[in-house]
Amino acid sequence: MHFFDRLADRIATADSVVSVGLDPDPARLPDSVLDADLPRWQFNRRIIDATHEHAACYKPNAAFYEDPDGWRALEETIAYAHGKDVPVLLDAKRGDIGNTARQYAQILDEDAGPAADAITVNPFLGRDSLEPFLQRADRGVFVLGRTSNPGGEDLQDLELASGEKLYERVVHLADLWNQNGNVGLVVGATNPDELEEIRELVPDIPFLVPGVGAQGGDAEAAVEHGLADGVGLVNSSRGIIFAGEDADTRRDDSGDAFFKAAGQSAKQLKQRLNQFR
């Protein structure tokens, strides 16, 4: 079963297009998880318990797991999310020469341990750098298309000889690379006009739209232009997982109030987005 078919089923089950970013910054974890063997895994488990009813997907960012205990925490997180029937999109932004890319792509293989259902990739090195991901037809591959960070325009706005901007060429290439029906695009939510423009360029590719939440992206535009036949994801990370972050909840030994706030934030985002579906 292809990733986007599984995602469509999950969206229907949860009545949600919310992607919950699992970015367990060690400096911001509440006291209630700090004594655990794997604090990041304990944190993620509590977040998943609090939010899974409202989550279409979980999106751990690889940067928060790149040490031995972190990889263990990530494996446990993927397995636990799957136990809740929620797919996992690893935000790793991979993209490298062939033999290195083949190694990176093993995170999508079940025989290497709990496997992510999808991954984000960086297209700067071209198709051959992404081929090990693209050829896994049952896994989702989200290509960085248009990012919302201030420096993104340094390269993405460059005009090519064809008259296209660089990000527009990337969008077209992603469409060409979608031979297995497993390609999505990462498109930031902070510029609604660009979201609409990119949707017009590629009508059938689902988007992962980050930036709705702490970054202040446009929720209505994210839903209107981010979904293709009702399939796509709108992500919030810090706005959900650290929604309960204040002095009192961080020091609460049980952590109940902290994680309850995360669940409420996920529910509120789901309801906010569903107004526009």
TrEMBL record:
Its EC number is 4.1.1.23. CDD domains: OMP_decarboxylase_like. It catalyses: orotidine 5'-phosphate + H(+) = UMP + CO2. Keywords: Decarboxylase, Lyase, Pyrimidine biosynthesis. Pathway: Pyrimidine metabolism; UMP biosynthesis via de novo pathway; UMP from orotate: step 2/2. The keyword Repressor does not apply. GO terms for biological process: 'de novo' pyrimidine nucleobase biosynthetic process; 'de novo' UMP biosynthetic process. Pfam families: OMPdecase. Gene3D superfamilies: Aldolase class I. The keyword Lyase applies. Residues 17-253 form the Orotidine 5'-phosphate decarboxylase domain. The active site is at residue 93. It is an enzyme of class 4 (lyase). Belongs to the OMP decarboxylase family. Type 2 subfamily. PANTHER family: OROTIDINE 5'-PHOSPHATE DECARBOXYLASE. This is Orotidine 5'-phosphate decarboxylase. It comes from Haloarcula argentinensis. The lineage of its organism: Archaea, Methanobacteriati, Methanobacteriota, Stenosarchaea group, Halobacteria.
